[in-house]
Amino acid sequence: MKHLFAIIFTVFAVVVNAQETHKRTLKLMGSRFDITVVAKNKAEAETYIDLAVAEITRIEKLISSWDEHSQTSNINKNAGIKPVKVAKELYDLIERALHISKVTDGAFDISYASMDRIWKFDGSVTEMPEAAAIKASVAKVGYQNIILNKEAQTVFLKLKGMKIGFGAIGKGYAADKAKQLLKAKGVKAGIINASGDMNTWGTQTNGDDWKVGITNPMNKNKVFALLPISEKAVVTSGNYEKFILLNGKRYSHIIDPRTGYPSSGIVSVSVFAPSAELADALATSIFVMGKDVGLDFISQLKGIECIIVDDKGNIAHSKNITIQNTVKN
Ligand code: ADP
Ligand code: MG
After folding, report:
1. Domain co-membership, 307 together with 192
2. Which of 248, 249, 206 shows the shortest CA–CA distance to 228?
3. CB 108 less than 6 A from any atom of ligand 1
4. Do 54 and 78 sit in the same domain of this protein?
5. Can you tell me the distance from the alpha carbon of 148 to that of 85, in angstroms, rounded to the nearest whole number?
6. What is the pTM of this model?
7. Whose alpha carbon is nearest atom 20 of ligand 1?
8. Which ligand places an atom closest to the C-alpha of 253?
9. Are both 44 and 190 inside the same structural domain?
10. Tens-digit pLDDT profile for residues 94-150
11. In this predicted structure, what is the pLDDT of residue 248?
C-alpha cells in the first residue's frame, strides 16, 4: 500500500511539473533566429517567446547602422564633428568591443565599417586590387580613433567618414540579452539561436544537456560534432559560399581591418564562451588571426574553447575540448 501511494505521488508530481519544449523560427536583425523555451504549455511558451522577440527588436533599434534613427547612426553621422551621448547600454557594448580590439591587437574592430568596399563577394572581383588601393581602403579604420568619455557617456569617432558597425558582435549580444531576460522571468531552460550564434541555459526536459551540432561548412548536411552544452554560448562563424578565389587562393568574407586584405586559410570557426557576445567577437578575430595564432590565443583564455575547420577540410581544436562522434568528410 505504501508503495502504491509512493507511485501515485510520483506520477502526480511528474504530471504537475510537466514541461514542454517549444520553438519559434523567425527573421530578426536581418537573420534567422530560432528561439526555444521550456515551459508548462504552448501558451506560456509563446508568451515568453514574444518577450524575447521584443527584446531582440529593441536591441536592433539601438545598434543597427542601417536604421538612420538609431543611436549608432547618430554616432556615425557625427564622425569628425562631435561626441554623441548614448544610452549606457550602447556605451558599455562599445567599451567591451574596444577591449576585444585591444586584446586581439586590432584583429577585431567595430570601425571595420569605415572600410571602402573594394572586395565584393558576388563573383565580380576577378583580380587582386592594387596594393595601394587595399591600403587606402582601411585608412579610416582604427579602434584607436573611437574616443569614449565615461562621465559624459559619449562616443566620438575622430575621423570624418568613420563608422562603427556591430555585424560581428550584435547577434551574439542579442542572444545573451534575450536569454538574460527570459531567465529573469523564470524560464528554466532554453536556447536563443541567432543564425549559429547561440546561448543556452538549463537542460532539456529529460534532464540532459542541450546538444549543439557543429556542421562542417564544406558539407552542411553533415554534423561532425555533437557537443553537450549548458549555461554556455557557442558561436559558429563561417561562410563557405562567400569567398573570392584569386591565383588559386581562397579569401573569406572577413577582412583584416589592419591591412585591408581578406582573411584566408579558415572556412569555419566555432567558439565556446560564457557569453555569445564574446564568442561572436572571438570567432571573427580567429578568422583574421589564422589557425595557428588563433589556437594559441584561445588556449590562453580561461573557459573559452574553439574548433576550426581550415580550407583543406582539416579540423583543429583547442586543448580542453573533446570532440566525440567526429565524422570526417
Ligand atoms: P556571420 O554572423 O555572418 O557569421 P560574423 O560574426 O563572422 O558573421 O561577422 C562577420 C561580419 O562582421 C561581417 O559581415 C562584417 O559586418 C563584420 N566584420 C568583418 N570583419 C570584421 C573585423 N575584423 N572586426 C569586426 N567586424 C568585422
Ligand atoms: Mg562574429
Report:
1. yes
2. 206
3. yes
4. no
5. 10
6. 0.91
7. 254
8. 1
9. yes
10. 999 999 999 999 999 999 999 998 998 888 888 889 999 999 999 999 999 999 999
11. 84
d(CA 278, CA 97): 9
Q: Say if ligand 1 is within 6 A of residue 270 CB.
A: no
Q: Would you say 280 is a known binding-site residue?
A: yes
Residue with CA nearest ligand 1 atom 23: 108
Same domain, 130 and 210: no
Tell me the C-alpha distance between 41 and 56, whole Å.
23
Q: Does 254 contact ligand 1 (Cβ within 6 A)?
A: yes
Domain span at residue 89?
71-157
Residue 302 lies in a domain: yes
pLDDT tens digits for range 195-248: 989 999 999 999 999 998 887 777 767 777 888 888 899 999 887 777 888 888
Give me the sign of the Cα torsion angle 86, 99, 303, 229. Answer: positive
Q: What is the rounded distance in angstroms from the CA atom of residue 135 to the CA atom of residue 113?
A: 15
* pLDDT score of 329: 37
Q: Which of 28, 99, 112, 289 to mutate to test the pocket of ligand 1 (most atoms within 8 A of CB)?
A: 112
Q: Is 284 annotated as a binding residue?
A: yes
User: Angle at Cα 237 formed by Cα 189 and Cα 258, nearest 5°?
Assistant: 130
